[in-house]
Specification:
Blueprint (H helix, E strand, L loop, with lengths): L1 H33 L14 E7 L6 H9 L8 E8 L5 H6 L6 E6 L5 H10 L5 E6 L3 E2 L3 H6 L7 E11 L6 H23 L9 E5 L12 H11 L3 E13 L4 H21 L10 H15 L1 H13 L5 H22 L8 H24 L25 H5 L4
Parallel strand pairs: 1-2, 1-4, 2-3, 6-8
Antiparallel strand pairs: 4-7, 5-8, 6-7
């Protein structure tokens, strides 16, 4: 009985992991090709758009972001640009105010309350028919807004997500290379999900929703995951358009990406908890399949890896399970070697891909723990060089001292 139970646990864990990384992409490929869901697109529609740029101590990038926003190919009288500052103190607000004469608004949150609370303030202080959410370091392609808004010609479309691409210079570090590969896979999945049903979640760098579908956020909410779930629960669709592009830099180290992913996963699980209707298959069955496969099962992979390893260890005398133990140990050795060389400008994919895979799954494990233990902080910190925030890298900000959260 014990042996049979361990075998069932082992094969169940392995099969789910294989499904997450191989089965689901194949399923999407077939589903998007054989059973696509079309929608109306009209390149001529020009709704009033409010671009909300979230910022906390973004002095290093905010000027470039504003200049980029002002030169986008969209009628200026139909585009409202607002920077929502979460009590920035590095000179970000002063730079934004320089553009007041060109129609750029500063919406300052006097106390450090976090991005979500700031967005609530930004939404109530603006008037566009569509809300376009963006980050301070996200540089849009000239036609990005036009590409996004054309999908709202279909009344069934509630949100549209653009494609955030990572800029990878020739001397990109391993973290940027790995993140680039990660986002190539994510972009492919989003494209197929959009064709088959609805894209899962938004992207804080570039996604738009109908103003009428915005729901006020709690401080610990993650807006680009919770709002899309709430919109789906109301019967609308989410579309992914890779032609609506923006560019941003990946984190300059694995550790910074690690902290960012922990925050995203813990708060995304909280978003599912806040919008439980999406867990009911009959609400939108295609979205339910994608949410389960793309997010919930993938986040559970580290738990499944542990289960597979432990169950195999209990059956170590059998050649099949002994082989699995050896392969998994060797994989972790490669990951640890990649960790030991993480500060090198470049390293072999044989090392940094296992390291990055383990890093992402460790972030999932910690993110799950944070969610279940209620450790969700409302504030965030840029993953870019802290020296760019107006303070030396070795001196944390007052807010960071009060509550360190990435």
């Amino acid at each position: 009985m014990f042996t049979t139970s361990m075998q069932i646990l082992f094969f169940a864990a392995v099969l789910i992991i294989v499904y997450v990384y191989v089965g689901y992409p194949v399923f999407l490929l077939v589903g998007a090709r054989l059973l696509p869901v079309g929608h109306r697109i009209d390149d001529k529609i020009l709704p009033r758009v409010t671009m909300l740029i979230s910022a906390f101590n973004e002095k290093a990038v905010i000027r470039e972001k504003i200049e980029n926003s002002l030169t986008l190919d969209y009628p200026s009288e139909l585009l409202e640009i607002a920077v929502v500052s979460d009590a920035s103190f590095d000179g970000t607000d002063e730079i934004v105010q320089e553009y007041a004469g060109r129609g750029v608004r500063l919406i300052r949150q006097e106390n450090r309350l976090g991005k979500s609370t700031g967005l609530n303030l930004g939404v109530t202080s603006t008037s566009g028919d569509l809300l376009l959410f963006s980050d301070a370091n996200a540089i849009y392609s000239p036609d990005a807004i036009r590409k996004l808004v054309r999908h709202f010609a279909d009344p069934r479309v509630g949100y549209v997500v653009g494609r955030a691409r990572y800029r990878e210079p020739n001397d990109a570090q391993a973290s940027a290379q790995s993140e680039g590969l990660y986002w190539k896979l994510e972009s492919w999945l989003k494209k197929k999900e959009s064709l088959w049903g609805s894209v899962i979640g938004g992207d804080g760098a570039i996604y738009a929703i109908r103003r009428s579908l915005y729901s006020p956020l709690r401080p610990t909410d993650i807006n680009d995951f919770l709002n899309p779930l709430q919109i789906i629960s109301q019967g609308f669709r989410g579309i992914y358009d890779p032609a609506a592009e923006c560019f941003e830099d990946a984190g300059d180290s694995f550790e910074k990406e690690f902290q960012r992913k922990i925050r995203i996963i813990s708060r995304s699980l909280n978003a599912v908890w806040r919008a439980p209707q999406v867990l009911l298959p009959w609400v939108q069955v295609r979205h339910w399949v994608s949410l389960l496969s793309h997010k919930l099962l993938r986040w559970s992979v580290p738990l499944l890896m542990i289960l597979a390893f432990l169950s195999a260890t209990a059956l170590y005398w059998h050649p099949l399970y002994l082989f699995f133990i050896v392969v998994q140990v060797l994989f972790y050795v490669l990951a640890l070697t990649g960790y030991s060389r993480r500060n090198r400008p470049r390293q072999s994919r044989v090392l940094y891909l296992p390291y990055y895979f383990c890093l992402v799954n460790l972030a999932s494990l910690i993110g799950i723990s944070k969610f279940f233990f209620g450790s969700l902080a409302p504030t965030w910190q840029t993953i870019r060089d802290p020296g760019a925030m107006g303070q030396p890298a070795s001196s944390p900000t007052p807010a960071a001292l009060a509550k360190k959260e990435s």
